Structure formats: structure tokens, C-alpha cells
Amino acid sequence: MSSKPTTKIFDVIVIGSGQAGLAVGYYLRRAKLDFIILDNQPRSGGAWQNFWPSLRLFSPASVSSLPGRMMTSAKDKSSPYLEDVLSYFDNYEKHYKLPIYRPFEIQSVERDDENDCLQVSDGKFTWLARAVVSATGIWSNPYILEIEGSQDFQGEQIHSAHYVGPEAYQDKRVLVVGAGNSGAQIFAELAEVADASWVTREPPQFLPDDVDGRVLFERATQRIKNNASDGAEDESNAQDSHAPKGDIVMMPPVKQARDKGLLTTKPMFDRLTEQGVVWSDGEEESIDAIIWCTGFNPELEHLAPLDVIEDDSKVLTEHGQSVKEPRLWLFGYGDWVSPASATIIGAGRSARENVPALVEFLKNES
């Protein structure tokens, strides 16, 4: 009597080989699990390969590394450049011989009741796993403010995710919108070549010159801890109240713009017209381009078949594990999954803390 053909079922399938996927892969290999990583990019680097060439990290290489292997910076050890990050990621996956397959654009994750596992598909190929890690990040789902007249504006509108440098904006009138680090860095370099203004809803908050991006990670971590304890006052809360205030790290280009008196902002405009904007005082101005540095939303469309996405476009998780589908784990989407997990240092710590629980889950399930 013939038997039914068997289909290979991996212990874990990781979707995405950016910083979160690599960190998870490091710990899965150490646990000696049978896993693969599926990535939609043609080469290593995750979302970093899509950022503007002059981008620099907020923290020194010593604290901007994934587990097991230190990042180095060819130009300035205190603040790695984009090229350092890309080289590091490429070297990292090769050094640890991570089983990464690309490019595969994953379209869906579904339950496979017959095999009691999850099914991952790109529309052409299908893979099965006892657990799935979603680490697709946020870059592919940029957020742009909804402003009256945005469909009428005839000039250029791009998100910071698609900004490639200042050359295209030479001598143009440009608005950079957003009070975060990307807005500060992009405005600082555009102010050198263009008639640029930095537009924010609230005045930007700057960290002291001698403070780097580590404080942002520690603050995010403390915020999560405080929420977990229902805001109870304790020694850590008291310490946090004396921490440096602000969100923007004073990177060298930002410092230079400040020292030249360029680091000023304008309040948000009221609406867009075909040729430009209308400011809050009613003045109209012609604008060539607007660069939206307004953040991202998580990219979770591939998880829709599991019915785990809430009204706020997030997934309920506990220590990275989906509450509604325990075989699904999420890494790298930000504070709502794990403190600062959308950063390199946060991705590493999140994997270190939560992958052991994933390994234990698989042991119990077997």
C-alpha cells in the first residue's frame, strides 16, 4: 500500500533578513534548530540598502552591533556610515552561514491544519514550519500625513524611505517635514545646497552634544518597563526623570547646521495647493518638493490570513509571541513588540531575550 508523500516541515521559518532576522537566525543556529530565512531583497542589508548614502547611525559601532560579531566603521568609529552597515550585514550572514534564500516576496502565512503547522507562500512556492518568525520590518510601509490638497500638489513628494541624496534638489525650494532624526539629518544636508525649510508640528527636541543614540534605546526600554508595572513610581522612574531630554541625536551634520544658524524650524502648513503650500497665516508659497520624514507603519499584510491583525494594524504579542496564534512570533517592529526593536541594538537584545522562549515553545509542542 502506497503512503502519502511527506512534505518537509522546518522548525522555524524566518521572513526577512534585515537586522531582526539576522539576530533571530544567530540564536536559532545556536539552538541547533532546523530553520531557513526567506528574504525579499536581491542582496544582504535589509532595508538599509534603500536609505540615502550619507545616512549615519546614532550610536557608535560598539553598541550598534548584532549578537556575536562587532561592527566596525572605516571612517569614524563614533558614528558608522551606511556603507559600514551594509558591509557588516553582508559579512555577518556569511560568517555565520545563515540559511538565507532570496529573493522571495512572501504573500501569505496560513494555518495548515492537516500538518498541524503554519504554511508560508510567495504565491508560487510553499514552505511549512512549526513556527514562523515575521521580521519584515517597517521600511516598506512608509507613513505620510494626510493633508488637504495633497492630491493637487504638482511638485515632487517623496518619503524619506526613498530619499537618495541632495543632488536632485540643488537650488530648489524644498520642505522637509518631520521632527525626528531622519528629518534633522536630511534637512542638515539639504540646507547646504537648496532653499530648504524644516517643518514640524512641535518644536524638535535635541539631545546634548555628548549623548548618542544609546539613550533612546534605554529610554524605550524603561518606558516598556514602566507600562508593565502600571506606571508605579520606583527608583528607575526617578532615574528616568533625570535622563537627558530630547529625541534628536546631534550627529556631526546636524551640529554643523546648528553652528551655522541653520537648524531652525517652521510650524506645519495648513494645506497644499497645485504649486505649493498655504501657511497658517494664510500666506501662499511655491514649493518644488516636499520630503516627508514622518515614520512608518508595520508591514504585516502577509499575516492577514491568520486573522491576528488588530484595528490599530498591530498584532497582540507577549514577549514577541502572538497571543492569537502561538506559532507566530514577531521581531523588529518597534516598542510594541520589544523595546526599540526597530533598531540594530534593540533587534539584538530582543532576539537574545525572546528566542529562548521560542525554542522552549517548540520543545513543549513536540
Task: Describe the overall structure.
It holds the Pfam family Pyr_redox_3. It is an enzyme of class 1 (oxidoreductase). With 366 residues, this protein is α/β, with parallel strands linked by helices. Helices cover 24% and strands 19% of the residues. It is built from seven helices and 17 strands. Strands 1, 2, 3, 4, 5, 6 and 17 form a seven-stranded mixed β-sheet that branches. A five-stranded parallel β-sheet has the order 7-14-8-9-10, with helices on one face. Helix 1 crosses helix 7 (344-365) and helix 3 packs across helix 6 (252-259). The chain is globular, with a radius of gyration of 22 Å. The relative contact order is 0.17.
Per DSSP E runs of 2 or more residues, the count of β-strands stands at 17
Report the average pLDDT across residues.
87
Main sheet overview? 7 strands, mixed
CATH fold descriptor of the largest domain: FAD/NAD(P)-binding domain
Report the β-strand fraction as a percent range.
Answer: 15-25%
List the helices and strands and how they pair.
Layout: E1 9-15, H1 19-30, E2 35-38, H2 82-95, E3 100-101, E4 108-112, E5 117-121, E6 126-134, E7 156-159, E8 173-177, H3 181-190, E9 195-200, H4 214-228, H5 235-241, H6 252-259, E10 265-267, E11 271-272, E12 276-278, E13 284-286, E14 289-292, E15 317-318, E16 321-322, E17 328-330, H7 344-365
Parallel strand pairs: 1-2, 1-6, 2-3, 6-17, 7-14, 8-9, 8-14, 9-10
Antiparallel strand pairs: 4-5, 5-6, 11-12, 12-13, 15-16
Helix pairs in contact: 1-7, 3-6
Give a short synopsis of this structure:
The protein is α/β, with parallel strands linked by helices and 366 residues long. The protein has helices at residues 19-30, 82-95, 181-190, 214-228, 235-241, 252-259, 344-365, and strands spanning 9-15, 35-38, 100-101, 108-112, 117-121, 126-134, 156-159, 173-177, 195-200, 265-267, 271-272, 276-278, 284-286, 289-292, 317-318, 321-322, 328-330. A hairpin with a 4-residue loop joins strand 4 and strand 5 (117-121).
